[in-house]
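ARCHIVE CARD
Drawer: 12
Card no.: 0347
Subject: one protein chain, sequence and derived structure
Cross-reference: see card 0346
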Amino acid sequence: MDKKEEFLNRLRETFKVEATERMQVLTTSLMELEKTTNTARRKELIEILFREVHSLKGSARSVDFSSIELICQSLESVFHAIKDGSLDLTPALFDMLHNVNETIGNLIASSDSRTSDISEIVQSLNNWVAGDALMEHQEKKSGLIAPEKKEPPPLAEMQNSIQENRGTVAEITFNPAVDTDELPDQEGDSEPSKSSRMDTVRISTAKLNALFLQAEEMLSIKQTLDQRLTDLKEIGAELEQKEKGWNKILPEIHRIQKSSSSGNGRNGCEQTDFHPEELIKFHQDHSTRLKVLNQRLNKLRKSIEQNRNSFGRLIDDHLDDMKKALMLPFSSLLDIFPKLVRDLSRDLKKDVELVSSGEKIEIDRRILEEMKDPLIHLLRNCIDHGIEKPDERVRLGKPPCAVVTLSISHVTGNQIEILVSDDGAGIDLESVKTVVVKRGIVSKKEAMHISPQELLSMIFRSEVTTSPMITDLSGRGLGLAIAREKVEKLGGQITVESVLHTRTTFRILLPTTLSTFRGVLIQVSERMFVLPAVNVERVLEIAPKDILTVENKEMISLSGKAVCLVWLVDVLGLPRIEKPGKSVRSFPAAIVGHKNERAALVVDEVLHEQVMLVKQLGRQLKRVRNIEGVTILGSGKVVPILSVPDLMKSVQETAGISKHSFQAEEKQKKQKSILVVEDSITSRMLLQNILESAGYEVKTAVDGIDAFTSLRTDQFDLVVSDIEMPRMNGFDLTAKIRSDSNLSALPVVLVTSLSSREDREHGIDAGANAYIVKSNFDQSNLLGVIKKLI
């Protein structure tokens, strides 16, 4: 490739950026022109469109994009005719203009400079101008014979005309040293284009991303300084301890000196080589050196601390500035949606208006790019599924024109909220329930008890759709699943609210920037790991008594809901390292969540949360289960970052298979045997469940005789009994226990509905240790009484 061709390619790349911006202005202005009825504003918009097309034509000419130049020349004629009033704005004309815009956009994107594919468009534009001019002439010359319609010049003739009129403008001196931004405006444009403003500079996103990554890498310097500062503090503390210990020796040396100077003969110091004066001098010199060393160390520590603060502030400021450089207003994304909504509504023969707000709010460009597809999916969903046909809306008492609202607002300093809502038919929960049962996501029995909000959340699952047919727009059940996946990948959340026949609102929470990764550092089996902070809901201590067993799986109750409990050491397949002799009273655990799933992961220790840099695994380790990447701590230690989606799958496989020995040991210590005597099966099961959950071994009996038989054959630590039972009541059972020499010391608790004073006294007389009335029954009260008795 010679220098001339290389420079032309550079020019064309610059042209594509500028042309894309101009096309955005054209599309936005055209959409507003179609909606507005204000005459003054219409004139302004027509002038803007005319100027933008004129400038685009000149730019296309300078880089030899004759196809775009040719379309713009004809488009200029159309806008000129609109300006002088010879061409009326009609829906058909707007459709034509939108199609032309789309064609130009495709040509820009494909860098297609051919003209053979655009002859029909140019001809159509010329026909519009010529046809409407003829109609105007006929109206002015009413009653006269219309003049012969003048045919537009052939395409080949127009091309020749363009080549002839280019003159010296087309003769570009290809000098690689000349910057493209210094090229003069084409066709004598006096108004500079937006792309050449002096307060902006063009830089590729790849370079910006590289700079941002370099800024993030500087965080490791900050973390290393933190670690070195910690090391120095530890050394200083150790030196202080040594100095204190050394100073404690001085009184002992003085005592030895005094003893030596007062002694004589064999015990005198003159009979030995030991000289206390030399020892005292050595001690003083050593103490002085320790003090000097400590002072130098403190000075060094303060200096490093100052450097750390200065560098830390500079690094943080630099990183913040780089984040701001990657920020773009939402308007750069929202500008494409009016045209999208217009085209979709026309294709579906619906009348829809898009109302947007919050366009000036800025967000990370990378998030903006990733959110384009999810928002398109949501808007398609609203228009295709949510919005009714105009006649149906009128029948329901709604205005024929539906409204789709897209609003952006700040929630917190680093979080924004996107609302996509429509005033359409809403979501039919019964239809959703039918689909999820049919797909096998839930059983018919589970579907009967599922809450409306849980049912709504299932529309984000793959292949869940209530559309009766598959179209090129929707019906496959993938759009919302893709939207949720994208949002959660960005560290956000998406939820939906709906009222049947009234409205549907999708709510998206997103961070404003793809900030540096924050992780929770944990220790498992003497190894360190990192849990992504965004997935950690909370950290808590779990006591063995809080652990329940449901269907052979360990669970804990959290906010009224059962959460699966697993030991992370088992999930990761690491060896257990038990610490003998250590009394375990509680276990630290992290509650992690992903999508609609939660799990409690028991760890050895939760260290702290900090900002970290994520390092991806190499190609050789591209896919390691449960591992998302690694980070390097300030100490230089490489620590794996756990993948929460993988962990949730591993939790399902591990739950129920492995139970920790600590829990078993605790249960063995607490395991006491209780006999529950109750004729009502409901009350019997309730008491059994309460006591087993508290860690007791429970056996049941249906009346006094059955209970006394069990007491003769098995050993129990306590009896919990009802009073009113067939064959032998609770009073008689208690008296029989007290009269038996082998059972007389066995504690008995009476739990009954009999609440009179006489009944209480009867129970005490029979020998009961406690009397609990069912009307005032509280399980904590029962467990407290039992704990005191055994």
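Annotation on reverse: The two ends are 93 Å apart (CA to CA). The first strand starts at residue 327 and ends at 329.
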